[in-house]
């Protein structure tokens, strides 16, 4: 009974933190259900790497623009409202797909833009709230718990969605999964009404935060690192799911891949959130980056479904080991930067601009490669180049020096 009382008291004390985790969990489950399959859905509709690239380019170009607008709004209104707006845009994306059908495929840049706007508003607000609600001594725990929840969502979402889609006729399974994602986003909006209102004040000083890169070495190094994080993510976020579908011809394979990835990721996140110490951060980031780059070699030569599953297991180890300390380090750098309290929103926006700058560069290189060369030859070579992004992160963050 005493243990139960302590647990209830802990939840009351950290109520806002757990509410934010609940919103993150609903978002993760919605994305786990649908995001893996959206790119395959587009691929099946258009059967074109170029169209797929344009769709993803729209996401990573509209997203930073949305971050800037959301950041300006968060300086004037409650950032919880900005969070709701982001989730609403994401829900609207699925409404458009559900009710427009094939007509949406004629406007892929606008469709991707809608998703990018939703991501921009959501992640701006979520990251700012994370910075405000967590403290340096709770950030590793928060990021670890959020990662574990994302992994659990990955255990449920992709296998369930893959089975529903593969068992349904034509595209009815896709419509059912997109509808489920819509409902989960609505639930996330409802949860947001229980978060405390959090206002900010002052002018939107984005230029001043960019200029901080000249004065603040830590800030310059962490933004450079985020560019290379995005450099890998831009292409890998969509090409791996299409490779899986091309290798097997069925959406069930994506579900199996997602399940294996999520199970291993859950175990790794659980380990990282419990045992990760601040003094181990740099070694963890290096190890995670090396493992993530090594995993690329499994899918660029003699591609097979077994190799893709091994790749999924390897990145499920690499990402948590890298991201838990890396995200905590990022917020610690921001917390120790000039005018962190007044400019916290601008710091988050600038970080995302560098992250999406890397993603956009990656997708543009993808489009350039498949335009100038044969796609089957160009894509593996490109993946070896952009796949190094997370490994390069270490060479920037090792130069960061935080005051204790």
TrEMBL record:
<feature type="transmembrane region" description="Helical">
    <location>
        <begin position="284"/>
        <end position="303"/>
    </location>
</feature>
<dbReference type="GO" id="GO:0022857">
    <property type="term" value="F:transmembrane transporter activity"/>
</dbReference>
<keyword id="KW-0472">Membrane</keyword>
<feature type="transmembrane region" description="Helical">
    <location>
        <begin position="379"/>
        <end position="397"/>
    </location>
</feature>
<feature type="transmembrane region" description="Helical">
    <location>
        <begin position="48"/>
        <end position="69"/>
    </location>
</feature>
<dbReference type="GO" id="GO:0005886">
    <property type="term" value="C:plasma membrane"/>
</dbReference>
<feature type="transmembrane region" description="Helical">
    <location>
        <begin position="81"/>
        <end position="101"/>
    </location>
</feature>
<keyword id="KW-0812">Transmembrane</keyword>
<dbReference type="InterPro" id="IPR052528">
    <property type="entry name" value="Sugar_transport-like"/>
</dbReference>
<feature type="transmembrane region" description="Helical">
    <location>
        <begin position="254"/>
        <end position="272"/>
    </location>
</feature>
<protein>
    <submittedName>
        <fullName>MFS transporter</fullName>
    </submittedName>
</protein>
<dbReference type="InterPro" id="IPR011701">
    <property type="entry name" value="MFS"/>
</dbReference>
<dbReference type="InterPro" id="IPR036259">
    <property type="entry name" value="MFS_trans_sf"/>
</dbReference>
<dbReference type="Pfam" id="PF07690">
    <property type="entry name" value="MFS_1"/>
</dbReference>
<feature type="transmembrane region" description="Helical">
    <location>
        <begin position="353"/>
        <end position="373"/>
    </location>
</feature>
<feature type="transmembrane region" description="Helical">
    <location>
        <begin position="171"/>
        <end position="195"/>
    </location>
</feature>
<keyword id="KW-1133">Transmembrane helix</keyword>
<feature type="transmembrane region" description="Helical">
    <location>
        <begin position="107"/>
        <end position="129"/>
    </location>
</feature>
<feature type="transmembrane region" description="Helical">
    <location>
        <begin position="309"/>
        <end position="333"/>
    </location>
</feature>
<feature type="transmembrane region" description="Helical">
    <location>
        <begin position="141"/>
        <end position="165"/>
    </location>
</feature>
<feature type="transmembrane region" description="Helical">
    <location>
        <begin position="230"/>
        <end position="248"/>
    </location>
</feature>
